[in-house]
Amino acid sequence: MSGGPYNYSYIFKYIIIGDMGVGKSCLLHQFTEKKFMADCPHTIGVEFGTRIIDVCGQKIKLQIWDTAGQERFRAVTRSYYRGAAGALMVYDITRRSTYNHLSSWLTDTRNLTNPSTVIFLIGNKCDLEAQRDVTYEEASKFAEENGLMFVEASAKTGDNVEEAFLETAKKIYQSIQDGRLDLNAAESGVQHKPSTPGRNNLSSDNQGSKDNCSC
Amino acid sequence: MACFWLNSQETRVKIPITEEQENTVFYIIQVFVGEIYWSVKHRYNDFYELNTKLVNDHGVAKDILPCKKLLRSKCPEFIENRRHGLEIYLQKVLKFLKLAMPRVFLEFLDFHLYDVYFILQSLALKFYSEADSYLSSAKTYNFTTLEVHAITKCCNTPLPAENTSDKRYDLTHVFDFSSQLNILYINGISGTYLRSIIKPNELMYDFKVFKKVNTLSLNEVCLESIKDLGQLRTTLKNLTIIKSNMTSLCQILQCDVLHKYTFDNAQVWNALTVMDLSSNCLTDIDPTISLTPNLEVLILDQNRFSSIPNLLQLEKLTRLSMCSNLITTCQEIHLRLGNIQHLNLSQNSITSLVGFSKLYSLVSLNLTANNIHDIEEIKYLSQLPCLEDLKLTGNNVSTIVDYRVKVLEYFGTRAEEICLDNEQPLQPELDKVSIRRALKILKEGSTPAILNTR
I want to staple B46 with a disulfide (CB 3.0 to 4.6 A). Which of A5, A14, A36, B42 is the partner? Predict the structure, then answer.
């Protein structure tokens, strides 16, 4: 059972949201495959990806729901907010309209997730500095006012992509340790690994360090 | 396929009839969800047990179930009354529990067998506990067309993400598992499914979630129900499609191309090395075969080929199997197969081996159960320098006196390297071969080379 990649102690559920074409699927692809997907097709409904990461010495499996940005799929994607421990809200720094819609995405997120869900704002496509339409300061202020974590990233170059996913996980992990997030609550979006049900001892060792995750 | 969450307003239950089996009365429940319906059979005791659980755990009123009779009655009037009572009971409970749909109730009505969401919940439960053991070994899993349809449907339909607070039933487990699978088997279900009107093979599905699949096996499916198979073009190494009534390769290799037989580079199945299309209705290989340039193994058993197709475009092909086809003649096969090493043509109706004489790379040849009568035919194989494995059982030729020796004799000095019908030649056989050769030389009057040098 302790075969390398299957050894993790927690599962965190993420959801990626934002307008059409801001690069949600590319961010996921960059994070899971470490590659940039040029001509990525429109997401129909939802897509899915996983990766195991290391946070404070704990192996954590991220289950990431990547949603369609198109309005016509809104009913489909809404059902995936529930039970998300982290929400990555993405806009495109070269298109102001995607930034202007953030408040509606935020309202949705706040309404459909629970209070402990960590919301991370990502300004994607920061490699396209010349076409910038939204300043860093402006977005940063928006994030601060709404209590969001914020970073500008590029799915193309991979800049800050890791960081966004990892920082979110760290924050969630802290919430667990602080006791702010109840593991047993139905909608916490966090689970223990199935084979170790009910194990609540956070400091429990991870079966030695022999099977270091490749990530 | 049923989808309760989209049709909860159009969901009804009826108990139209009863049935007596071995002295027990069964009530036939019909469940209607939108346009789909199915039937479930229960006896009164099942209702009673269900009711106890529903009363205890889910707040269903105590007194709505028709009461238990102490005297068991078989009179039609009593049964009819009870049937009516149970029908009203189910309708009341369904109305009351519509939003919660507790597991015990939906399983009583078999929702977990026929409904998109509840099928996925059952899968989720399974993968919650077993996914790691599947993934840590072979990464193989057998889905039915019903299940892959449910997965596909789930991505495109608004469903309650989690109606249950039980994390074991979280659908994420299904997607997590599917996205990591390497080897995917999909088994079709022909006709209608169990006691429903669902026809699983007519349900559409795609491969969007199966991102890491490199081996795909489709068994008894309907090719028209597959969507977007083309997205596996760059990753799929091994493709098996059997018993699916395929008549033309383009049905698969150009499944997503509107104008068949016009090719471009984006359609090439680059990674594909093994393709098994056994038990279909293929009669020929169409030009789409050029889209699989890296194919090494091609299996076309149990199709309807009457001759060996031209596979020269497959430069890397080393193994071809065309067992149980309708092949009668094989002429100049080297102009069709080129550099082939392993050829299985068993269970055809081949009479002559003349066409095999230039297959110089051939290592193994299986001609089991054909119509080869004449031992003379073997001479066409005698000059194949790499041949090591030859199977001729089940031909008339294998029943003649001294069959093994006579066949081996054709290979001359190479006789001992030939494994005939799964048996290496024995020393007595080889001795006989040498004697026969010597006699033959004498008969022909030429002097053996050894004697000449003296």
Answer: B42
